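Run: sequence + LD2E54VC -> complex structure.
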Amino acid sequence: MLFYVVLLLLGAGAYYYHFKTNRKKIIERLETVVQRRRDDLAKNVQEAKRIGDKLDATRRDWIAGLDFEQLQGELQRGHVSAVEAVRTYFYKGVLAHQKTNAVTAFILEAEQQAEEMDEKAKSPSYVKPPMFGIPLSLKECLKVKGYDTTRGFVQDAYRPSTEDSIQIEHYKKLGLIPFCQTNVPQSLLSYNCSNPLFGTTTNPYDSTRTCGGSSGGEGALIGAKGSLIGIGTDVGGSVRIPCHFTGTAGLKPSKMRFAHRGGGASVPGKPMIDANDGPMAQDVKTNVEFLRNVWGDIDFQSDRDPYCPPVHWNESLYASEKKLRVGYYIDDGWFTPTPALQRAVLEAKKHLEAAGHTVVPFYPPRLTEVIQLYFRAVCLDGGQYVLNKLLKDIIEPTINMQVTLWMIPTWVQRALSYPISLVFPRMGVLMSSLTRDTFELREAYADIEAYREEYVGLMMKDNLDVILCPASIMPAPQHDIPSKVLCGVSYTCLYNLLDFGAGVVPVTKVSKADEEKLINEYPETDKWYQITKKATIGAIGMPIGVQVAAPPFREEAVLRAMREIEIAIHGK
Ligand SMILES: CCCCCCCC/C=C\CCCCCCCC(=O)NCC(=O)O
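>> structure
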């Protein structure tokens, strides 16, 4: 017996030694790649700055002050050229990058693309596309010819895409000019924004806090006014959480509303929770104008990707005179949001009621089950795909919690979940969520289908058009917090599980009264609540958004409610 124990220990020791030596070699090799990539980025930013500085400062400042609609109008009328727009946004993008570290590459060819467009526009027979000359920022994982899509993995640096994805092709056809790529958390499966290749992107309102993720670079860039419109992706809140954290507005459409051919994903092959691309901007109005043009011309994508149905922009749904019936909640029963987030929903409710809409309470059923189903369907292989990739890379310390959990075999997690649930029930839920076998996975898929039916059934029973609810559990926390409170995505991941269209609109900022309420009333019943409370102290002045959601192909109703909230707040 002793012999076998010694043998086992020796075997384990040898394996550990081999693993450690191997990891050391990988890290040493990749560290040189990081250095090279960062040097290249520094040169790239210098070049972007040089291009931005070509434009006379007075002229540049005037163009920089135009919002999306105004810039679009000036470009259409020929009062501003595409080259001027691109140079202005290189300048503004560099400033935003210097503040937040949001950009992973400026797409320097943008200047030439703009010159060619201006040249074409000289011909009297040329009809300008609707978004002629508007600079577009892109989350780093979206495929642009000649540029990397590393998703924060050092091993994927210097492997540029050979083609634009269908979506990027389409945006170019509509006149948009991709001018930069923006930062992400390593693996995309996090709602912060740090990776070993490009470092940490910070919140434009407070650099000690995260801009959110995984489309965090977009949130930071747009929030710091370095871009008017950008594209993110979302499998659990990655468009909506950065919008909420940075005071920007964005929409995650349902899966089928965009072509996915030639696109990228965090974990390919998870059909119930697919990545959705979606726009992000400084306001809802810009998202509407963008989507009106893209979905108005969706045949371009459908023709090239038959899995994308030709569902056109539905103006009659967006501009309908019929008042909406809105279901709302301020607590999903899984994770009570901090006071400012609840107040934001109640304020948005008042705005919608003042506009004549009916707003009634709605209770999303069984969020504990949703959390389990969501994690089961996202990490459908127990996290193996991402873990294998991470173990061949430098691992980002701010996602250590995910990595540690993925390293514990599923059967061990299951065995530990019961005793853990006795002292920390919600952790017990998380630890029993990853799937053990395909039998359980099939069951989870069937349960998701059943939950979708139940949820839309509840909405139909009450004639609800849209749902209004918090965008998250807290305002932007410090960079290491998202990994420690993984299950804080319940407000957003629900609408990925349902495949609803869902968007976030900024409503308010954290006030002193919110902080007092937090200190006096916010629960401290488990570790996650304690972390959330601590992270929210000191967040006075941070932006707070609310979320609006509706079943698939009703994104226009979501945008309508978001826009009405925006108009009520800003008067325009
Ligand atoms: C013991 C249980 C282990 C559970 C381990 C969970 C690991 C974390 C997995 C998923 C994290 C979910 C957070 C999602 C944040 C938003 C991600 C997102 O939307 N990404 C966009 C994209 O992938 O395109």
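>> summary
The pocket of LD2E54VC is lined by residues 188-191, 214, 233-238, 266, 275, 375, 378-379, 383, 402, 405, 413, 430-431, 433-434, 486, 489 (CB under 6 Å). The longest helix spans residues 2-52.
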